[in-house]
Amino acid sequence: MDRKGVLVVISGFAGVGKGTLVKSLMEKYDNYALSVSMTTRAPRAGEQEGVSYFFVSREKFEQTIAEDGLIEYAEYVGNYYGTPKSYVEDQLSKGKDVILEIEIQGAHNIRKIYPDAVLIFVMPPSAEMLKERLTGRGTETAEVIKKRMDRAAQEATGIEDYDYIVVNDTVEQCTAKLREIIETAHCRPVMNEDFITAVRSELKAMAGEG
Ligand code: 5GP
What we know:
Layout: E1 7-12, H1 18-28, E2 32-34, E3 38-39, E4 54-55, H2 58-66, E5 70-76, E6 79-84, H3 85-93, E7 97-101, H4 104-113, E8 118-123, H5 127-136, H6 142-155, E9 164-167, H7 171-185, H8 193-209
Helix pairs in contact: 1-7
This protein binds guanosine-5'-monophosphate (5GP).
């Protein structure tokens, strides 16, 4: 039986370690496809074009919106971020579980377009720990860190709209938890409609024979 792909949305405050978790999931398991977003933010040291993001100008981003090339997009701390449509649809149709690492507004929009998507919010063990991680990363200015902490406080009001929360205590445990959630999502009837229909019609035929 072919498996239908699950669309998985992973959100969480800046600095919570979403990137590390997603990397760990991708390394451990081979049935995931990670969507690479488009952004107008400048690359950080070590980020690669087409791997971390597709880094584009505002003009190019707005052109992509106009061409209906994005499933969703949002503005986050002064920059645009969006999910390219063709990759996601292509991978889902191949039965891959597609992972989107996106912020909360984007997650809400995905829920509207793909009601069967699974929305997971990664929580820090504590707010204090989040601030430490964000400061310790050393890639952002004090002003940007402040903006991202403010945004975290704002985003904290939308957590109830997610299906699951996972606490990023250790990468190992949290990765295992994410895997469990995604595997469980495959057990929903909506992910197995063809199989259910097939068994149902076999049963009907057998009942007819009897
Ligand atoms: P960062 O600048 O730290 O890489 O990302 C900032 C925020 O934008 C993060 O919360 C990240 O999950 C989110 N983000 C990244 N790509 C997308 C996207 O395609 N759409 C939306 N809505 N958010 C995104």
